[in-house]
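Fold Annotation — chain and its backbone

Encoding — discrete vocabulary of local shapes
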Amino acid sequence: MEQDEYLFNVYSLYNLARYAFLKIESNYSRMVETSGITLPQLRVLWIIKVYPGTSLSNIARIGCWTSPTVSNMIKILMNKKLIYNEETINKKVYKFQLTQMGNWLIYINKQDKNKKFYLIDLIGLFSHSELDFIIAIFTGIIIKEEKNFIFDYIEKINEMNLKVDFKDFDINTISIIKKTISVYNLLRTFILTVNDTHREPLKEFNVTYPQIRALWIIAAFPGITSSELSEISFWSPSTVHVIVKNLNNKHFIHKEKASIKNAHYLDITQQGETLVIEDYKKNQKTLLIFQELKDISFGEILNLNSLLMRMNITLGNYKTEEYIKRTFNIIKRKAL
């Protein structure tokens, strides 16, 4: 096996996992927002439901967020009267509890077979043994990321049936759904942990993580419109507008007005291409993922990639494979 082949499949694994997670997360977010809260806010409610009296730092740890992010969400949820801070002797100690309204928000956001919930769409895609294989691989990765605490949370989420209303499913299907929920949570923890380790070294290049992600997509699809970038990246048009504006100001891309209203054709500049190659050489090849996969055989990586590709196709991520091949061709020409 050549080194290029191994690097390609590790690169594929990360991106296949990332885009499967992002598609499910995007779909889930849209569904939850109809209830008047965001998916991250609902996730805070789940964590407090699972661990009544939990602290802000524990919510941040389980949710893979920074403390300031959690602090802002806590303020919003308290203003909405969905949670309250339990009285303690030490006024500096926060112990959060759900209100009746908070419990109701969890209840009305339970998904069922009548809702267009992508996790339900994955029922029947994998056998029990395939799901067990995916869970086993990502469990090993999460252990190496030292995020073992997430396993207890996932187990309790499934025990308490917080995400799905199981009343219309048979016992075998319920087991499949619970394993699929475990896969989703493991993917989320894996991706957000890798993203977090990638974020810090990007400061040297004076770019943010979303900006480098956008650059890679623009490098893969020259002439892409800002609306297509929004679709592939799962960002809102307003978020894409800000990212594109910043990249253009830094001369990493150039843009040209498109015929579509409020859209632009985007191309990466030489300076931008140099940046993404430096990002791969200095940052991506040193990410924890290479250490995490060290004890996994190449055959297992290929098998996992095949299953993750199947998931992406079922979810409608038709450009994922093309994105991986195009960006790795850039890496192969310029960095390897």
